[in-house]
Amino acid sequence: MRRRKLLTAAAALTAAAALALTGCGRSDTSSTGSDGAAGFSADAKIGVSLPQKTSENWVLAENLFNKDLKAAGFDPEVQFANNGASEQQNQISAMIQNGVKVLVIGAVDGKQLNTQLQQAKDAGITVIAYDRMLTNSKNVDYYIAYDNFKVGELQGQALLKGLAERKGDGPYNVELIAGSPDDANSTPFFEGAMKVLQPKIDDGTLKIVSGQKSFAQVATQGWDPKNVQTRMDTILAKNYGSKKLDGVLSPNDTLARAAMVSAKNAGQDVPVITGQDSEVQSVKSILAGQQYSTINKDTTNLVEKSVDMVKDLQQGKEITAASDKDNNGVKDVPTEYLDPVLVTKENIKDAYKNDPSLNKIVNP
């Protein structure tokens, strides 16, 4: 779901005012832009439901939400749904029963929470979709994320640039990897990348040797690196032989490393490969001249902006930062987008200068 800037500043104010007038039980002076909590207790319970621990960034988000919400005076309840969508459904229902005033949800599967979102609506709880859109429900108040279509575009651009730098003139043999089909972010990542890559596939600059080009063919269930390695092992054994694998489009760092292992096991040189999430092992790999790129989506900043939104809701303020719109299938959800940053060896020292842990690695 690509972002859609549908509101001018004036229109955004008009929409917020209209919501203030029609909200459940609020006075005309309350203007959060949400049908949920307004002016609730400063020590209220805040529920944060996160998906499986499939990347370092989710673990970091857990720690930051606990720390930042407590520092703001709230009572955080932060949980992971490591056993999948059904566990997340149960966890969210329990948070609602426990009296949370705001739910921040990083969904395992954004299509499977409609019952819980209706429960939240009925309880007057504000719902913030965090990092991943909650789809096909009108009961989503806000969405905060990095611009995922732009992430894909940056990955496609990085693959082309890396191929030219490392492999010389084309044509190039490449393979495509996409994220999990139950993650709402996976499609915009792939579509953004293909907007850049499809013209080069069409003119023969890029050759997809396996023939696997559609999202359905290249998706990775559960973002599981084992699934990528198995698929890449099969592709290389069946299609390459003496051919060289020049590049791989990978949507994140974990899957990129799995693809590199597969290439190494097949006797291939390290392909030009993209990534995302700035995982420590991949940052080191970029420094070593192996993985070509990653995307820096600063989790610290994303959590900070999310907590700022919760604080504004607590004080009954209008959420002016959510000035974009993203359609979730049934509703244009007020959205705050943050800008992702492409990181290669060329700019890696500058990219992480404000990140204490990664700065130690890139600027020892």
Structural account:
A 7-stranded mixed beta sheet has the order 2-1-3-4-5-12-11, sandwiched between helices. Strands 7-6-8-9 form a 4-stranded parallel beta sheet, with helices on both faces. Mean pLDDT is 90; it is low at 1-37. With 364 residues, it is of the alpha/beta class. The protein has helices spanning 9-22, 56-71, 85-97, 114-122, 148-167, 186-202, 215-218, 225-239, 253-265, 280-287, 299-314, 348-351, 356-362, and strands at 45-50, 75-80, 102-105, 126-130, 142-146, 172-176, 206-208, 247-249, 272-273, 293-296, 324-327, 332-338, 341-344. Strand 3 (102-105), helix 4 (114-122) and strand 4 form a beta-alpha-beta unit. The longest helix is centred in the middle third of the chain and has 20 residues, at 148-167. The two termini are 39 Å apart. Helix 2 (56-71) runs parallel beside helix 11 (299-314). It folds into 2 domains: 9-140 and 298-338, Rossmann fold; 148-297 and 343-362, Response regulator (Rossmann fold, 3-Layer(aba) Sandwich). The chain contains 13 helices and 13 strands.
SSE layout and pairing:
Layout: H1 9-22, E1 45-50, H2 56-71, E2 75-80, H3 85-97, E3 102-105, H4 114-122, E4 126-130, E5 142-146, H5 148-167, E6 172-176, H6 186-202, E7 206-208, H7 215-218, H8 225-239, E8 247-249, H9 253-265, E9 272-273, H10 280-287, E10 293-296, H11 299-314, E11 324-327, E12 332-338, E13 341-344, H12 348-351, H13 356-362
Parallel strand pairs: 1-2, 1-3, 3-4, 4-5, 5-12, 6-7, 6-8, 8-9
Antiparallel strand pairs: 10-13, 11-12
Helix pairs in contact: 2-11, 3-4, 5-6, 8-9
